[in-house]
Amino acid sequence: MSNEFQAGRAFAQTLDAQDPLSSYRDKFHIPLTDSGKTSIYLCGNSLGLMPKAARQAVEAEMNAWADLGVCGYFKDGDPWVRFNENIREEMAAIVGARTTEVVLMNTLTVNLHLMMVSFYRPEGTRTKILVEENAFPSDRQAVNSQVAFHGYDPSDHVIEMQPRTDEHTIRTEDILRTIEERGEEIALVMIGAVNYYSGQFFDLAAITKAAHEKGCLVGFDLAHAAGNIPMSLHDDDIDFAVWCNYKYLNGGPACPGGAFVHEKHTSGNATLKRFCGWWGEDLEERFKMTPDFVPSAGAAAWQLSNAAVFSLAPVRTSLKIFAEAGIEHLRDKSLRLSAYCMYLLDQVDAEFEILTPRDDAQRGAQVSILVHGKGREVFEALEAGGVICDWREPGVIRIAPVPLYNSYEDVYEFVEIFEQALGLSTVMKAAE
Ligand SMILES: *Cc1c(COP(=O)(O)O)cnc(C)c1O
Fold first, then answer.
1. What pLDDT is attached to residue 360?
2. What are the phi and psi torsion angles at 160 (to 5°)?
3. Ligand 1 atom at shortest distance from the alpha carbon of 135
4. Probe residue for ligand 1, chosen from 139, 242, 248, 249 as the CB with the greatest number of ligand atoms within 8 Å
5. Which residue among 47, 161, 165, 370 has its CA within the 20 to 30 Å range from the CA of 405?
6. How confident is the model over 80-134, as pLDDT tens digits?
7. Ligand 1 mean position to 134 CA, how many Å?
8. What is the residue with the minimal CA distance to atom 14 of ligand 1?
9. Best of 196, 255, 315 to mutate for ligand 1, by most ligand atoms within 8 A of CB?
């Protein structure tokens, strides 16, 4: 792969000139540095940039509130009662689901709990949850508290998959072997599809198949995968998934997240238990105001409360951009951006390690760089040089070249500043 690239800024500019998606950059606000320069924003894995059209989309709903008051719930064309229902199709296309298998609601950790209420039902000797080491803390806290809620001790009821000694990522074969050996004790396999720290993308289909063969249920956290890597949740037979929409999906801070429930759990005489609230009720029944619960079709039945229209409006704006650009096209550019980044990093003569797998099938947009010893200083020098990226203890700089709004030249400039930062002297010169 790497021999398709060349060193030097001119080559980055050539790649940008050939990029069929380059015009999408202009649809986003890119933050400026203190000195007024356009920053090199490589933090879309943490908070995606604001689509320029989002402001107007929120304002339109604000205006509807001003003009219509409560009648906004039933306004023509785009009633608030159907606001999140009407954006499911675009969402479903991104994660590879049927329209009724997805719902936009709450935030990620809340959705994870709601899904575990339904999908973590320990019984007899099948009581454990399999997770990956270095899972995002909130996921691990949710898993541990669910286990404790059912009266078990998380220290022996949460099985943690680990990388082998001297490796940074977890081998799929090791996950499959653990499922094979311990599957009968495992009620639920719950893994972050892309690990937030290493950037490793797991083989969702293989893990799901192995887990189902042993009778376990399977859920994935797609926080770092949704809008990053095309998936096929339905065809892979995954039981449930949850995600947030503010990372690669650019929906804005704390915007409603997503949940996926496979159709097989909601059709026919499915008997899954769930926590209920009025917004999960079928729209025909909801306003009859009776205490019994007639569920909406599919994942929508898990909604508890009425939809957060103002914070969903930017999500809708962003999903339209995704539908236009196409997740497959975005993935092509994304793989090329990260491969180019690794190619350039390989030319830097200094002590650091790339933790993220080089194999296309095992990574998304993110590249995690472990800088031994002086990582924090390097990170601060990057910031001073106009790069917005992030730092995760104990020593990792994460960057995410996002195909919607990052350019090859962004990547080039990042590596140039990174190289200077490792020398820790000429950083400000690079920022000019
Ligand atoms: C970003 C992220 C979260 C954040 O959770 P919220 O409930 O949206 O605050 C949780 N889990 C993972 C894996 C994440 O990457």
1. 97
2. -110, 120
3. 13
4. 139
5. 370
6. 999 999 899 999 999 999 999 999 999 999 999 999 999 999 999 999 999 999 8
7. 13
8. 223
9. 196
CA of 200 to the centre of ligand 1 (A): 16
Check if CATH label 3.40.640.10 holds for domain 57-322.
yes
Which among 201, 204, 194 is positioned nearest to 247, based on CA atoms? 194
List strand residue ranges (DSSP E) for 266-356, in order.
353-354
* Farthest-apart Cα atoms in the chain, separation: 70
Q: Distance (Å, rounded) from C-alpha 384 to C-alpha 10?
A: 24
Q: What is the per-residue pLDDT for 428?
A: 43
The amino acid at 357: P
Residues with CB under 6 A from ligand 1: 107-109, 136, 138-139, 192, 196, 221, 223-224, 244, 257
Chain length of the chain: 432
The pLDDT of residue 394: 83
> What are the residue boundaries of the structural domains of the chain, listed by start?
2-49+326-430, 57-322
pLDDT at 270: 77
* pTM of the full structure: 0.95
Q: What is the pLDDT of residue 326?
A: 97
pLDDT for res 424 = 57
Residue closest by Cα to atom 13 of ligand 1: 136
Distance CA 253, CA 370 (A): 27
Integer CA distances (angstroms), 413 to 109, 363, 395, 398, in order = 35, 22, 22, 16
What atom of ligand 1 comes closest to residue 111's alpha carbon?
Answer: 7
Nearest CA to ligand 1 atom 15: 223
Distance CA 389, CA 412 (A): 14
Cβ 49 vs Cβ 70: under 8 Å: no
What does the block give as tokens for 178?
């653990």
At residue 374, the pLDDT reads: 84
pLDDT in tens, 253-280: 999 999 999 999 999 877 899 999 999 9
For residues 320 and 52, the answer to whether their CB atoms sit within 8 Å is no
> Do the first three CATH levels of 2-49+326-430 and 57-322 match, i.e. the same topology?
no
Class of domain 2-49+326-430: alpha beta
Which stretches of the chain score pLDDT less than 50?
1-2, 426-432
